[in-house]
């Protein structure tokens, strides 16, 4: 307590500490801070708060021997708590602060704001009682109460409480939604709100009564509780509701359980996540009992994904999938995969070394595919190292690759379609090469490459092929590039690079099955490749030349245009190149590819293969367009593939797809997607979504239609409806535009 003037001690009239001419506010700030520090320091230390209290006011004076009064724009600070009031009276005997409002009590981080008409607090601002109070949590949720008690600086007790994140316009107009309760306790450390005798109302109409209710406050990022419910109407699954429950199991673990109950199914969906010091694990799945498949009383699926960083720079990752039957994923719209791929990989990538191991398992969900006759288990191990020998210069690479795939079937003879359905294969490939680049006069770059690879195959359960085959393939290539750049007067730049390659590969073709290189792609990425095959069971041999031209244009306004044109000449045409590969003749198809990227997030990419022997007839085409901005995301794709028996494509494939969303304004959002099969002249799928939100609620409506035509995927229509209360839903960013109140 600051020293009291002697006149006041002798009972003299109360004397103001202000001067006749008001001093600048900063002077009273200093004097008030010292005075309150002397009076409150002992209590502050006893409560272990962070430092002495500080008082700032326009006017400070003594009222008797035991009361210090501050008036006019009063501010008191204690630790991370800031108090503002019209008048504050400190009583030395009781250690209380009497507050006259309007008054506010704010945490330093702004997460909690209390506004009240009047109240009392202890000298540490940790305990007290406030009347006519309103609390704003994280600028999202408002709690109004007749009386608010602050206990130990951690708990806030509210009586006769109304809770809502909606803006309230006048006493006669109820908010869109609110929760009324006899009492509410806010635990600021745990970030929880505890309701007693809670009543949920919409537009003032009571809809639900709960004796007890617990909700996370808006500051919580991970708190146990119910998430946004989803109402769903599906032609396959019927009408039902999903009600997710999030369970926080610790700082690094959580579990989400989502029961889905409809007139045709009883399903429990789950998601488990755990973070480790060196990685993360996620397990998702569902278990169902339904009336859709009479062959299975219980159905379900599970998927486990993980990524772990091991010692010595190794990385372990896995994605494991299992399902009860072929139609479960499509029935419940969990996935449109028609083959489940499970994989475990262990690898290490360093600047000059690569080590990789992988094991893959396939489970076919296709009605026309036998799981026992496809390569179900696939294993790979690879190693690659590069050196930079000073004696000869350049770069030296060597490596090895071990591969094997296994079928469950043990049939070793061809069936009616001429295919051996039990064939198993193991392969070892060892390679070494040297490469170097020179830059000559006028910027001409010369790239040389020479090396060899040895392959050894072991074929099992196939009576039509030798048990083992081995061979050596030497290869070499010389590539010439002449990059040129031009700066234009308008600030743009052009970069042009003609390129030509002469390549040769020796050796002889091995008598092994073509099972890894069944799909050949010819694009700008492998125009200068020594082989366009994707695996060593097929290799290009003989002399080949590749030539092309690339062009790029960069404008001062951030437009970018790129183009590539190229072609390959082959001395010997490989019979395993199919028509749609563009490499089935001595002169390959002409590859033309381009890209346009514009300011504002626009980009268009397209490529095509054109047959020079047929007046540049189109043999393959694909295109992708996208637009990403602050309010809009949009993508469009198109693909055209011809009939190709070698690639098991009996009909032309021609499809386009659209997917996009736009936030029209702060309230409305739209999304849509569609895919159409031009060749079959029918839609494949379509969807439409609408969201509406204001400061306190978010509503979503979605409509999806699948036009399935297979035995596994049947046509279905799915309608979903979600309602979320903003301020109480996890990952609620808040911050939407507050509505205006009109008289």
From TrEMBL:
It is found in: Cell outer membrane. Keywords: Cell outer membrane, Membrane, Signal. InterPro entries: LipoPS_assembly_LptD (IPR020889), LptD (IPR050218), LptD_2 (IPR045659), LptD_C (IPR007543). Residues 298-668 form the LptD C-terminal domain. GO terms for biological process: Gram-negative-bacterium-type cell outer membrane assembly; lipopolysaccharide transport. It holds the Pfam family LptD. Component of the lipopolysaccharide transport and assembly complex. This is LPS-assembly protein LptD.
